Amino acid sequence: MSTSLTPEQVARYREDGILHPVPALSGDEAAVLRDRYLANASAIKGRTNQKPHLLYTWLDNLVRNARILDAVESLHGPDLLCWGAQFFTKPAGDAAYVSWHQDATYWGLSSPDVVTAWVALTPSTVASGCMQVVTGTQHEQVKHEDRFDDANLLSRGQEVAVKVDPSTVVNVELQPGQMSLHHVLLFHGSELNRSDQPRIGFAIRYVPTHVRQLSPIRDSALLVRGRDTYGHFDLERSPVADLDAAALASHADATDRQLRILYAGAQARGKLNPSRGSIDQ
C-alpha cells in the first residue's frame, strides 16, 4: 500500500518548509527500535552516532523503510540517497538544547533539495523539548554565528544571526512512530527536556541523486531507492551484520569524510564539540 503524500501535503510542505505529523512506523515498531537503541546507547555516541545505519542492520532497515521513502519520493522523486542520519536524545531533565539554525549552513551541498525525516521513537512534546520551527523561513540562507556551547547538541553551536520572534514559533509535537519532514533551510531548534521521560528521535537526511557535494572532499552516501546516474557521491554499503569488520571500515571512511566537511574552518580555531558531534536538530 502506497504511503505517498497527497498533493495538498506536498503543497503545505512547499509553503511551510515542514510537514507533520506524518505516519512512519506503528507504535510497536517504534517501541522495538527504542529498545534496540537503549540497549546500544552507550556505543552510539560521538562519531558512532554519525551514520549509524552503516553499522547496524536495524537502522539500515529504518532508512530504507518504504513508508518513509514513499513520502520523501513525493517531494524529491524516485532516485534517493541517504546522505546522513543520527539519533537525537535528550534524557529526562537534561540541559541539552539546540540553537536556532538552518541545516544547510555547513553541509556543503549544491542544492536545497534536501529533506530531513525526523522519526520519533518516544513522545516528542513541548515538555520533553520537541523540535520548534519558524515556518516559511526556508527560502534563503542566512548568516550564522558559531558559539560552541557544551550544552548545545550542535557540533559548532551554530545559531542564526537574526532575531526569532517567539510568536512565530511552531512546536513540532510527535508521538512514537510519527515523523516530521523538514526543509534543509528551515529555521529550527529545540529547548531542554523538562519531562521525566527521555526524548529519542532518529533524523534521516535524504537527497535526490542530482545533488552533489561542493567541497573538494569527495563525499559518500547510501542509495536507498531508484538509480544513481550522476555519480556525485561514492556509494556506501549496507552492513551485512551489526558491527562487522566491513561495516566498521565503511563507517569510519564515510564519517571521516563527512566530519571533515562539517568541521572545515573550525579545526583551525581548535573549537570542536566531539561529545555532541551533531549536524542537525
Q: Secondary-structure blueprint of this entry?
A:
Blueprint: H1 7-16, E1 18-23, H2 27-40, H3 57-63, H4 66-76, E2 80-90, E3 98-101, E4 115-120, E5 131-134, E6 144-146, E7 158-160, E8 169-172, E9 178-183, E10 187-190, E11 199-208, E12 220-225, E13 234-235, H5 245-262, H6 266-269
Parallel strand pairs: 12-13
Antiparallel strand pairs: 1-9, 2-11, 2-12, 3-10, 4-9, 4-11, 5-8, 5-10, 6-7
Can you walk me through this structure?
By secondary structure, the chain is an alpha+beta fold. It has a single domain, classed as q2cbj1_9rhob like domain (Jelly Rolls). 23% of the residues lie in helices and 25% in strands. It has a seven-stranded mixed beta sheet. It has a four-stranded antiparallel beta sheet with strand order 3-10-5-8, with no helix packed on it. Strands 6-7 form a two-stranded antiparallel sheet. The chain has helices spanning 7-16, 27-40, 57-63, 66-76, 245-262, 266-269, and strands at residues 18-23, 80-90, 98-101, 115-120, 131-134, 144-146, 158-160, 169-172, 178-183, 187-190, 199-208, 220-225, 234-235. The protein is globular. The model is unreliable at 267-281 (pLDDT under 50).
